[in-house]
Write a structure and sequence with these properties.
Helix content is 77%, strand content 0%. It has helices at 3-9, 43-73, 81-92, 95-128, 130-145, 148-159, 164-187, 191-199, 204-215, 217-242, 247-256, 260-289, 291-297.
């Protein structure tokens, strides 16, 4: 074998330039890779559809079922959908509805704030001190088992027609469930975080701000939903039995007049306002406060 053949067969130096090999002919036409720079234009529409369509389907089934029942029974006690809709629009266009709604919302807000402050303090104490846990357990159990109607009747007899009546009734109804949620969230906090706060000698204020409240955020939000749902039910009962204003008072008046369409219209409008608070306020607050959890997960 000649020198020229050996030089040609010898592999190239490692440090020398490398010549790229031409791609092998596979017989397939190359296709462009999908863009990865951002979401597709239809992703927002799809998310919106997945969120709205199930609720819309439920409402359509509910309205259709009510209309079929009204047509089948043909009774003044079960008005059809056009009658209820006409009464609802007339009630919504009347300024008296918004006055009654504002009074009810103010009472619920004051009572819920009182329940929230008490529940956070008692729930943290139960989660940290075993003696206080055993001390408050009977109170929480009694509060969870007593019906809201009982609290409404007792507060009407105790406080009469005053602002204290609905505020205390709402607080007594919402505080036990919220306290239990805060207590369970306190027990579930990672012990390593608590030890770290103790080692670095965090003040009580720093522990509350940087440890307890962020860790209790899911428990507080879930407890707030449950507490608010109980508050709406109790405030209507209190206003029906012992107040001279508010949504419950108006419902009692329509009940006395045996106006089923008006009772349904006030109930539906009140439910729409509560749904707006749930989806617009509570869920928006939950998404805003939980952004850091999604960033960490990514």
């Amino acid at each position: 074998m000649s020198d020229t053949t050996l030089r040609t067969a010898r592999p190239p130096d490692r440090d020398g330039p490398t010549v790229p090999r031409p791609p092998a002919d596979t017989g397939r036409t190359p296709t462009a890779s999908p863009p990865t720079g951002g979401p597709r234009p239809t992703s927002y529409a799809r998310r919106w559809g997945r969120a709205v369509l199930p609720a819309a389907a439920f409402l359509a089934a509910l309205v259709g079922g009510w209309q079929l029942m009204a047509l089948r029974l043909d009774s003044v006690l079960v008005p059809d959908v056009p009658t209820v809709w006409a009464t609802l629009t007339a009630t919504a266009s009347d300024g008296h509805f918004y006055d009654a709604l504002g009074v009810t919302l103010l009472r619920v807000l004051l009572g819920f704030l009182l329940a929230f402050v008490v529940a956070v303090a008692v729930g943290l104490a139960m989660g940290r001190v075993p003696f206080l846990r055993r001390f408050f357990e009977p109170a929480v159990l009694i509060g969870l088992t007593v019906p809201g109607l009982v609290w409404a009747l007792l507060c009407v007899m105790w406080f009469g027609v005053s602002l204290t009546n609905p505020v205390v009734a709402v607080a007594l109804s919402a505080a036990p469930a919220l306290t239990l949620s805060v207590y369970q969230g306190t027990v579930a906090i990672d012990s390593d975080l608590r030890e770290m706060a103790h080692v670095y000698r965090f003040s009580r204020r720093d522990q509350l701000r940087h440890l307890w409240l962020p860790s209790l955020q899911p428990a507080l939000l879930s407890g707030a939903r449950l507490g608010l749902s109980l508050s709406w039910k109790v405030i209507v009962l209190v206003e029906m039995f012992g107040m001279s204003s508010g949504v419950g008072y108006e419902l009692n008046n329509q009940f006395a007049a045996q106006d089923v369409a008006a009772v349904l219209s006030w109930t539906l409008l009140f439910a729409v306002v509560m749904a707006a608070l749930e989806y617009g306020v509570l869920q928006g607050l939950e998404r805003r406060l939980g952004r850091w959890r999604r960033e960490v997960a990514v």
